[in-house]
Structures are given as C-alpha cells and as structure tokens.
Amino acid sequence: MIKRGIGRQIVLHYFIVVFVTLFMVEVIFSLAIRMYYYDTIKNHMYVHSTWASDYFQKFVRLNAERDPDYFTEMLRTFELDNTELLILNNKGEVQASSSGFQADKAIQTSDVPQAAAGNVGTWIGRQTSTGETVMAVSTPLQVRGETRYIVRYLTSLESVNSKLMNLTLVSVGVAGAVLALVTLFSIGLANSIVKPINNIRAVSAQMAKGKFDVRIKGNYKYELGELAATLNYMAQEIVRSNQIKDDFISSISHELRTPLTGIKGWSETLKLGGFDPEETELGMGIIAKETDRLIGLVEEMLDFSKLQQNEMKLVITVVNLKEILQETMLNVWAKAEQKGIQIKLDDHIERGIYVNGDGNRLKQVFLNLVDNAIKFSAENSWIHFVIKQQSDTQVLVEVVDSGIGISHEHLNKVKDRFFQVNHQGGGTGLGLAISQQLVELHHGQMDIHSELGVGTTVSVMLPIHEIKDEGEVSSPDG
C-alpha cells in the first residue's frame, strides 16, 4: 500500500489514465471485431441470396415457376453449411425450408417486411424456439417488378459470439497485463521522485531547526536537482550571513567601545578637576569628537533599519548635482589633506546638470564613497570625481581612486550588509549597502569596478531632470 502523498497521486493518475485508455481501446476493438465478423457473415449470405434471385429470374423467363420441383431445386442449389434457407411468400409464410421445418405462422421479423417492400432486409435477434442469437438476410424474388417470394437465409451466431468472447477475454487479459506493468512502472517513477523529495524535506527540516551545516546529498536531475542546489546555496548564504553578522557585532562592539572608553576616561578625569585650560579644552574636544563618532555609527544603523523596513522618506527636489559633488569635496578636504591625498573634480559638462532627488541623501552617498576611497588609499595618492552626461536622460558620476583595490573574491560582496573587506579598518560594513539602496530609491544604479593593487572606480548612474544654464542653480537642500 502506497502511503498518502505525491507518490500515491502519481500512481493513481497513471493508473486512471491508462485504465481509461485501455477501456476505450477494448470497447473499440470489441465493437470493430464484432462488426467485422457480422458483416462477413451478412455479405456471404447476401451474395448467395443475390444468386438465388438471379436463378429465380431465369426460371420466370422460362415459365418454370409452375414446376413443382422448383423450390426444391433452389434449396438444393443455394443451400449453405450451418445456415437454414427459407422460401417465403410476400406475407412471410414459409413455402419451403432446407431444414424441413414448417412454421405454423408467418415470419414477421424486420427483415421480412423490408424484403417484401423490395429491399434487402437484415435482422439480428434471438430465436424464439431455440433461444439462440441468429442473423437473417432476406432478399425479394420479383416477377415483373412485383415481389412474389422472399429468399431468407438464417444462421446461428452462437459460435461466432463464442469466438468473439474468447477474443475479448484475451484482449482483456492483455490489457490487464499492460495495466499491471504500467502500475509497476508508475510506482518506480513515484519512488524516484518521492525519495529525493523526502530527503530534501528531511534536510530542510534540520535547516529549519537552525542546523545550517547540513547539506542535501545526491546527484538529482532537473527541477529536483535545482531545488537541492538552491537549498544548499541558501544554507551556505545563511551561514555566511550569520558569520558576517557575528563579525559585525564584534566590529560594532569594538567601534562603540573605543569612543565610549575615551568619553568615560576623559569625563572622569575632568571630573576630578585641577587641570589647566589647555588640558581641559583637549579633553572636551576628545569627548565631542568621540560623541560625534558615536552619533555617526548610530545614524548609519538607523538609516539601514529604515531602508530595510521601507521607511526611508526622501525629500525630492530638483538639485544641482555638480554643487553636491563640490560640497562633498569640501567636507572631506581636511581628512584627505592629512594623508596628502589630492581630490579633483573632472567636469565634462560645461553647464549645471540637475536631477530629481534628495540633496542630503545624495550627498550622503558620495560622502560615503569618497570616505571609503580615502580610507583605503595610500598617502600622497589621488581621488577624482568624474561627472559626464551619458545620454539625454542619464548622468554618470564616478569616484576613482588609486588605492589598494578590491580582490575579485570580495568584489561581489562589498555591497552586502555587514560585509567588510578589512575588519581592522573600522566601521559597520553598512555604508555601501546603504548607498546602494539610496541610489536605487533615486531610480539610479551603482556599480563597482576594482583591481587589486591598482584602484577602485565606483559608478553612480542617475536620471537627469533637466540641463539648465549655469545661472539657474538651486541648493542641494532644494
């Protein structure tokens, strides 16, 4: 007994389809073979009845109808084996019979009235006297266009029906064997599908319980193979995501501990008092700097949370993209000067170019990109902002650096949340993930191209609102 499930459904569907098909074939075969045998018998009797009619016409022309041996001669000449030949008048009364049987009343089966009307009549039915199934073929014998007599052949169909029954039983047996083979085949097919599904289900249940180190084993084909590969990939990604999350927690704990330690140390030190104004100012400056650093970390995590929950609200205005880039450069100028890094704007557009967007959020994107470029660039290197119009509807901004670059292994992961190429570099690993989503909210696209030891280029494609004269400039805040 097959357990309830997809295996039973497969076997049941195969069984029903094959059973219905075989049943229809069986019915059609039985009807066709029966019709073939019956038509053969009917045609055989019809041919002989036609000959009898021709014989009768010859005797009419010779005026031999008055011969008392006329019917006897016809019976002897046209008699068939296992078939009774009757000569009837046009009322159905028996005039002569090859079996010597004389009916006490006229025969009125459907073939006789048809023959009396001048047509060839056929009747299949059960003989009242014997209970046998018989076939009768009646042909008119006409004199000057008028039916005078009827020649009627009558034969039993019991032998034929018995042969037909045997053929039917054989065909039913063959159909049963075919149905059994198909059922066995469908059971094997169902097992070949159900066993992998059960294996996948068992491993998935373990994954659901948090055991992401398990994998689906087996070389499955087609959709099952794709499903197994997808689940294995999902488990691998969950493991990687958990590892990234753990690294993030470790990193953010370190990032939070460092400024908090500085704030706590200097606040306790200043609390003791007795310091000169310069020392007090130094301590307060460190506390303010570390506080700003904490605020930046918290705001970055809040921004990411809002983006994940689709709660980020943009204040959309028409903003001058070149002005945003210039302000970004001014904001990071001091930080770049500390490492001797030169920042330059390569402007390939003579007039202002405008986009629909939130000026502050776009500025956040470019600040994050150039901050990463400064962080991972060597001293006395360079960073270029490149802005150029790609088409009538798009503008391209590139942040190009000559820093350490990103390996091919890490390039596809740098925009993932919490991912950090260098965990010692600080940060939350959310900057590029946030920038990516902010660019997408502006209906743009961000791509990263990098070569290890050569440098990195981050491309931001944004839709253009309008190109105006240089005098028509609006602020990034709208």
TrEMBL record:
<keyword id="KW-0472">Membrane</keyword>
<keyword id="KW-0808">Transferase</keyword>
<keyword id="KW-1003">Cell membrane</keyword>
<dbReference type="Pfam" id="PF00512">
    <property type="entry name" value="HisKA"/>
</dbReference>
<dbReference type="InterPro" id="IPR003594">
    <property type="entry name" value="HATPase_dom"/>
</dbReference>
<feature type="transmembrane region" description="Helical">
    <location>
        <begin position="12"/>
        <end position="37"/>
    </location>
</feature>
<keyword id="KW-0418">Kinase</keyword>
<keyword id="KW-0547">Nucleotide-binding</keyword>
<dbReference type="InterPro" id="IPR004358">
    <property type="entry name" value="Sig_transdc_His_kin-like_C"/>
</dbReference>
<dbReference type="GO" id="GO:0005886">
    <property type="term" value="C:plasma membrane"/>
</dbReference>
<protein>
    <recommendedName>
        <fullName>histidine kinase</fullName>
        <ecNumber>2.7.13.3</ecNumber>
    </recommendedName>
</protein>
<dbReference type="InterPro" id="IPR050398">
    <property type="entry name" value="HssS/ArlS-like"/>
</dbReference>
<dbReference type="InterPro" id="IPR003660">
    <property type="entry name" value="HAMP_dom"/>
</dbReference>
<dbReference type="Pfam" id="PF00672">
    <property type="entry name" value="HAMP"/>
</dbReference>
<feature type="domain" description="HAMP">
    <location>
        <begin position="191"/>
        <end position="243"/>
    </location>
</feature>
<dbReference type="GO" id="GO:0000155">
    <property type="term" value="F:phosphorelay sensor kinase activity"/>
</dbReference>
<keyword id="KW-0067">ATP-binding</keyword>
<keyword id="KW-1133">Transmembrane helix</keyword>
<feature type="domain" description="Histidine kinase">
    <location>
        <begin position="251"/>
        <end position="466"/>
    </location>
</feature>
<keyword id="KW-0902">Two-component regulatory system</keyword>
<dbReference type="InterPro" id="IPR036890">
    <property type="entry name" value="HATPase_C_sf"/>
</dbReference>
<keyword id="KW-0597">Phosphoprotein</keyword>
<feature type="transmembrane region" description="Helical">
    <location>
        <begin position="167"/>
        <end position="190"/>
    </location>
</feature>
<dbReference type="InterPro" id="IPR036097">
    <property type="entry name" value="HisK_dim/P_sf"/>
</dbReference>
<dbReference type="InterPro" id="IPR003661">
    <property type="entry name" value="HisK_dim/P_dom"/>
</dbReference>
<keyword id="KW-0812">Transmembrane</keyword>
<dbReference type="GO" id="GO:0005524">
    <property type="term" value="F:ATP binding"/>
</dbReference>
<dbReference type="InterPro" id="IPR005467">
    <property type="entry name" value="His_kinase_dom"/>
</dbReference>
<dbReference type="Pfam" id="PF02518">
    <property type="entry name" value="HATPase_c"/>
</dbReference>
